[in-house]
Design brief:
Blueprint: E1 9-14, E2 17-21, E3 30-32, H1 46-68, E4 77-86, E5 92-102, H2 111-120, H3 126-133
Length: about 150
């Protein structure tokens, strides 16, 4: 059964810089921005934020798979590279993401279970799976005093 997660609230500071808050949590406020010369680069831009979400979800899902299989590993390191370019209408779009996860089992006898986790974990990743399948996005623009 679907569950609603959030909200995530953004408030404009100036131009492209926004603060991000996570109500009803103890999470700290974040700053997001566009890089110079458009913005000031006060925080990660939308492409890096998407890359971060994908990398975090895939890394966490991989760790969960390893943990369930009782395969100890050293610290997991992940790098996400985004490719951005024009679509058929000339609009800039994220065209692809490459996720590089670096990990290995602490004990070579765990290699078969480690390899099994590598083979299956991506299928369980909530965020990358949704992006891969295409998430429907509804948007609504109203005056600030309009009811929700």
């Amino acid at each position: 059964m679907p569950e609603e997660v959030g909200p995530v609230d953004l408030a404009q500071v100036e131009r492209y810089e926004f603060t991000v808050e996570f109500p009803a949590t103890s999470l700290p406020q974040l700053t997001v921005d566009e890089p110079a010369p458009v913005g000031r680069g006060a925080g990660p831009d939308p492409v890096r934020t998407l890359a971060m979400a994908i990398g975090h979800c895939m890394s966490s899902t991989f760790f969960h798979s390893l943990d369930r299989a009782r395969v100890p590993v050293g610290p997991i390191r992940t790098r996400v590279l985004a490719t951005v370019g024009p679509n058929e209408r000339g609009r800039r779009r994220v065209q692809g993401l490459r996720v590089e996860i670096r990990a290995q089992p602490l004990h070579e006898e765990d290699r078969p279970r480690f390899d099994q986790c590598v083979a299956i974990f991506a299928d369980y990743c909530t965020v990358s799976g949704a992006v891969r399948e295409g998430i429907p996005i509804a948007s609504d623009v109203r005056p600030p005093d309009a009811p929700p």
